[in-house]
Input
Amino acid sequence: MNKKYCIGIDLGGTNLKIAVLNHNCGILSKEILPTQSFPHKEALIEALVSSVRNKLISQEFGNKISGIGVGVPGPVDYIKGVVHYFPNIPGWKEVPLKKILEKKLGLPVAIDNDANVMSLAEYYHGAARGLRHVLCVTLGTGVGGGLILNGTLYRGAENAAGEIGHLPLNLEGPSCNCGGKACVEVYVGNHRILARARRIYKKDITLEELSVRANKGDRRARDIWRNAGIQLGTVFAGAVNLLNLDAIVIGGGMANAGEVLFKSIRQTITSRAMQVQAKRVRICKAKLGSNAGIIGAAILAAEATQRF
Amino acid sequence: MNKKYCIGIDLGGTNLKIAVLNHNCGILSKEILPTQSFPHKEALIEALVSSVRNKLISQEFGNKISGIGVGVPGPVDYIKGVVHYFPNIPGWKEVPLKKILEKKLGLPVAIDNDANVMSLAEYYHGAARGLRHVLCVTLGTGVGGGLILNGTLYRGAENAAGEIGHLPLNLEGPSCNCGGKACVEVYVGNHRILARARRIYKKDITLEELSVRANKGDRRARDIWRNAGIQLGTVFAGAVNLLNLDAIVIGGGMANAGEVLFKSIRQTITSRAMQVQAKRVRICKAKLGSNAGIIGAAILAAEATQRF
Output
């Protein structure tokens, strides 16, 4: 029997999504559970296992599923399938998640961080389709990144590549959570943008509201996004000079700021990157939105079981 | 008959080097001509052709040579073998050098820029041997770079990858020759270092002298190199976070500044790069010195003719 489905799991700080996908990454079934509702690691793993088991015993998918992919919000030993830790979910430290899930579910499991998983999704089925050299960026609480080079996910020496958020924007500058300083993430992370908006509007304002205001022409909101675009564009120019990329694909909540942000990024790259590299690179919005995680996880599973 | 030799040509701003190498990149014969002694492009090509012809008709090498590799000091269309231009040798613009040489010499010719050629040499026979993810840097008039990723030379979308000298060191800063601003090359190129030395010592001083003074313990000379190391280390930290490299191999005239420069680079990377990436990366001096160009060119030829 030809096993042609994969299970894609997107374990995020907010939601745990579990889906069955066909070989074209079409979503056949999707379940969403709130991550915070599980009091500890064991409860979360148990919920995940029981959701997958339900799929495995169903008549519809049961014996057609060849493997399981999991995207997680933190650094991972990809080869061993060990979660090092999650910056935003307590209680996870050196967890052999692959081994645990394989033992409980009897199927091959592949695990990678969310930025790599999103990059796979956008490369096979989204904005980076058909390109060979792409940086995928998620703009959210932090600035995450994944690299497709020569048409494959580039992992580096220890699966830690892609950290575009931690390119220095300045020689000197504020400390970063990563231990370094003046990383671009310090300047354009969610919290910084919202703090800037709070100072300007003298009240709390959401990211969505700031985007809506900018798109309606509010000058002060546009200035905030334009400034973020210059800061991001500056480190992107460095990445473009170093890697001669076909495209930079940008997703995450902040990407909804829309044209004002993208235009500022593009202008900065045009004025700062070298001519050949600047002319080549396209700056575009990610296509798969909130499904990127489960789609990428299914691709991860398929690549690991070599069925695609 | 097994053709097992290659000709490696290093066309530099100062010297034109032409060598015959065996399949282990051992140098069997080497000729050095001063580049400036040729009044124009045609004369230089003619000298190069006649030197190669002498080797082709010699009894020793004649019919054993399988191909020719050329490293050049400027951007190249690697696929077509066209020199776009040389920043430091006038008169070269969109020159189909591969075609010209193949027609005149009757052997396959491969052409690439000097930084890529140096990277190949250090990867196969120098400091980067056995590693998979390496940035090779040349510190000279400019700051050049080549990337070995996943064990092969990474060229990017248009053979323009590797430009580590054009990562921005600051959001704002002085204009760079590349058209951008605040590139690290603006801060640590030869001329800047020498200008700084001139201001401090109130006289002209060579790079060699500055290195000798630093190695003898001259505090002011050491400060100059230490400062350059912090500036280089900052952009290297960004590259290390983005690419999770095994090593950064540093060559070129400035690399002779020695331990004071290397220590400063290492300390900066340790303090600014992310822990996993910083712990992994080694910072080492290039091994092949002035032979890197001809060795890399021979490898280029061998790769192109698939004989190694």
User: Anything to note?
Assistant: Chain B touches chain A through 50 residues (CB under 8 Å). The longest strand of chain B covers residues 27-34. The radius of gyration of chain B is 20 Å. DSSP finds ten helices and 13 strands in chain B.
